Amino acid sequence: MKELIVVVVCLFFSINVVSQIKNTCLSGNCENGKGVYVFATGDKYEGEFVNSHLNGFGKYTDANGNVYTGDFKDDKFNGKGMFVRSDGTKYIGEFLNGKRNGLGTQWYSETYKEKGIWENDRYIDKAEFEDFIISESYDFCTEFNKILSASVNNFAEIKGITVSEYITDSYLCKVKLKELSTVEINDKEGYSGTYFKGDKVEGLKKFEELNKLILKCVEKSCCTYKNTLVNGVTEKKYEFSPVTYISTCNSKIMTVKIEVIIKIQGTQSNVILHISNP
User: Fold this and answer.
1) Quick one: fold of 24-126?
2) DSSP class per residue in 234-273
3) Where are the domains of the chain?
4) Whether pLDDT at 17 is above 60
5) Would the pTM of this model clear 0.85, i.e. be above it?
C-alpha cells in the first residue's frame, strides 16, 4: 500500500496535511474501503479511504484529545461535521478544506454559542437553520442484506465487471461493504471478501467481531439462522445455516450458506466472509 500522508495541524479548528512516517493501518482496508489508521504522532483515524487517502465519513482523534466526526475529502474536513475540542467546546456545521465554512454553530459553553455563517474559519453573521445531525448514511447490515438477497439468484443483479480479461468466471461486486477488501463473486464459489489480514492474535479478535456483526445483520433479514462454530487448528469458522424463512422471502434462501472464516498460518491470519448457494 502506498504510504498514507496525513497529520492534523490545529489552527483553532482547522487541519492541514503534512508528511509523516511510521504510520500504520491497524485494521480494515486503508486503501479503498473502511479501516483504522494510526499515525506516528498518536493520532487515529477510523473511517473511509479512497486511494489511500481520507475520503468519505470518518472519525479523527488527535493526540491532544480533539475529535472530528464527519465528512472528509482529500484528507481534510470537507462537508458536514462536528469538531469537539478536549476542553469541551465544539463546532457543528459545514467545513471546507479543514476550516469552518458555511452554516454552523460554535458552542463556547452550554449557554453561549455563535450560530450563523462562517467563512475561512471566521464567524461572519447570524443565520437561522435547522441544527445539523452528524451521522454516517452507510449501514453495513443494509448493504450486507442486499448481497444476501441477491445470493438466491447466484448474485446476478450485483455482479459487476469481470476481475480481469483472463479470469472470466469471477466478478467485482456492485454492492460495497466498506469493511471488506479483495471482494469478488465467483460462479462456483460464490461471494467472498477479506475482513482482516495480519497478526493472528488480532485476527482472532476480528473473527469474533465479524461474527457478531453478521449475527446482527441476519436478525434484519427474512430468514433465521443457526450459528455453529467449527473449531479447527489452521481454520476456524462460524457457519450460518438457514432454519426458517418468512413468506415474503424467496424460498431459495434456505439453500444459502454464510460463513465467517479465519485461516491461520503461523503468526498470521486471514478473516473472510463467504456467502454461497450450492
Assistant:
1) 2.20.110
2) SEEEEEEEEEEE-TTS-GGGGG-EEEEEEEEETTEEEEEE
3) 24-126, 140-276
4) no
5) no
